[in-house]
Write a structure and sequence with these properties.
single chain
Length: 420
């Protein structure tokens, strides 16, 4: 497979994800560290600059602006001043970062007497600058003092983000309440039953985040499923934008969940107290006797896709029977890949053929029932007989090496939501 070149410049959204992946941290903490670095000047962003009327162009004497909205003139690409970032709190930065081309950024300037300044759009950060920032002084960048009070505590260092975000039930309830208010705000800005232009991308991001929050807090749950189904149905119209009823129904689901969790907070503790919590990056590898192919698949999952391969034989028994051990570790996985290799020779009605081991067949069937066919994958080595019962499962055939299927495996993991 050819190696794709790394982009020279990254959008805010991609830069945050890049930092989170490099540091193995929560996206929120990585985003806050990026904002702090931009505010301090430790990171620099450039953007397309628009200025108001001719009075802001270099070499032109400033004069009074005409009546009405100022006309914007393209002034090319330029650096975004650090003080602009310092003036934006985290929620505004987050909304800007999730938009595909970046949200326009305004900076008021009162020295000219007009109170109008340049507009910066599509901010980008050089990838090499991010690398250098992470390597300098261990990547330590604190929140400026002006925002410490607002955030209630300093962001701390990049390496602090590696500890992950472990929310208490109370913090989860507070976050649900915030999403409830934000989505209520989106609903209030509808005009003639049409969503505001500035809310279209933001609402999609809010839907993804609240759905992920419910999954992280409750595991598999009906709220996440209902929210995603309502969103997908709500954008199936001529405009391709969420309808008023779509936003309203999603808000009602969130309010119902909020009410239920307030009445029964133990629901939030059940998942936290479980010893085997479902992990989005845990991928169960089902295999037979072919150790070489098992190792190859394991290395691909771990080193190429940066996921956590779970192989039953490598896990401790802790006094469990084989079936108890399998169920214990299988329940922590959000995806399963079955490796069918010609391990057993079968004689039936004067016919001889090669098939996978019985445990491989059983375990694949278990995962199909547990996670659904969309969260299971079957890799079939040529020469292995296939059961018609597995015809509805994603199947990929390889001749000699599992690496032949790397591109196809990546696509299906992305489609299943396992890879970003």
């Amino acid at each position: 497979m050819p190696v794709l070149p790394r982009p020279e410049r990254l959008s805010l959204h991609d830069a945050i994800n890049y930092v989170a992946e490099r540091c193995q941290s929560e996206t929120e903490k990585a985003g806050k560290a990026v904002l702090a670095a931009l505010s301090e000047g430790a990171l620099a962003a450039s953007a397309n600059v628009l200025v108001s009327d001719r009075s802001y162009l270099p070499g032109v004497v400033a004069g009074p602006l005409p009546v009405g909205p100022p006309r914007r003139v393209d002034a090319g690409t330029g650096p975004v001043p650090p003080e602009l970032w310092a003036g934006y709190p985290w929620p505004d930065f987050l909304r800007r970062a999730v938009l595909p081309r970046g949200n326009p950024m305004y900076r008021k300037q009162t020295a000219d007497g007009h109170g109008v300044g340049p507009v910066y759009s599509d901010p980008m950060i050089a990838t090499t600058d991010i690398d250098g920032w992470l390597e300098r002084d261990g990547g330590s960048h604190k929140v400026p003092a002006s925002r410490v009070g607002e955030e209630k505590r300093p962001i701390g260092t990049i390496h602090e983000a590696k500890q992950g975000l472990d929310l208490t039930p109370q913090q989860i309830m507070e976050k649900i309440a915030k999403y409830e208010r934000w989505i209520s705000g989106v609903l209030s800005r509808f005009r003639n039953y049409k969503i505001a232009d500035t809310d279209t991308d933001i609402f999609f991001q809010l839907v993804i985040e609240i759905a992920d929050l419910f999954t992280d807090a409750l595991g598999r749950n009906s709220y996440t499923t209902n929210i995603m189904n309502l969103y997908n149905h709500g954008v199936q119209n001529v405009t391709g934008r969420p309808s008023f009823k779509c936003v309203q129904d999603i808000l009602n689901v969130i309010r119902a969940a909020h009410t239920r969790l307030e009445r029964n907070p133990r629901l939030l503790k059940k998942k936290k107290d479980k010893e085997h919590t479902l992990q989005i990056d845990n991928v169960f590898i089902i295999h037979g006797r072919n150790e070489a192919k098992r190792r190859e698949l394991k290395e691909m999952v771990a080193n190429t896709f940066h996921l956590k391969p779970i192989i039953l034989s490598e896990q401790p028994n802790i006094g469990r029977t084989v079936i108890e051990k399998f169920e214990h570790y299988a329940e922590t996985c959000s995806y399963a890949i079955a490796l069918f290799t010609p391990d057993d020779e079968v004689h039936f009605n004067e016919e001889t053929y090669l098939q996978a081991r019985p445990n491989v067949i059983y375990e694949l069937g278990w995962f199909c029932g547990r996670l659904g066919r969309s969260s299971t994958m079957l890799l079939l080595k040529e020469g292995t007989s296939m059961f018609t019962d597995f015809a509805g499962i994603i199947q990929m055939r390889f001749k000699a090496n599992v690496s032949e299927l790397e591109g196809e495996i990546r696509k299906d993991l992305i489609a299943a939501g396992i890879l970003g």
